[in-house]
Amino acid sequence: MSTVADKLAKKSSSKTSSKQVRLRLVYVDFWSAVKLSFLAAVALAIVTIVSVFLIFMVLQTTNLIGKLDEFFLAFTDGSFQLSAFLNLPQVMAFAAIVAILNLIVVTVLGAVVAGIYNLMVKVTGGLLVGFTSN
After folding, report:
1. Is the dihedral of CA 86, 92, 97, 102 positive or negative?
2. Which residues lie closer than 8 Å to 96 by C-beta, 6 or more apart?
3. pLDDT per residue as tens digits for the range 6-58
């Protein structure tokens, strides 16, 4: 009697010939590139906001902002306080603005790169990629 396990053992012991395929990338879909760059930009925006929040919390916990206030107090007449400008809502609003600008820039850059690649394929013939089956 032959079981499924025996059949799978026979299949795994036999050597398969590896075939190599060489493909040429001659077109990048514009909207796919825009969607992919947008998703990458969203991930970058989340990382930006979280990292700014964590850095601000570390600076606030270590009282570095207060020490910088004392440092600036030595050079000014006391009219400028850094802690008045660096509080959590203002820092997070700045981080959100930077994240939104990065979102727009990275999405547009993805579209531009896809367009430039599609134009350059006409000159160079595309990117040659080799695949093998193991």
Report:
1. positive
2. 49
3. 666 666 555 556 788 888 989 999 999 999 999 999 999 999 999 999 999 99
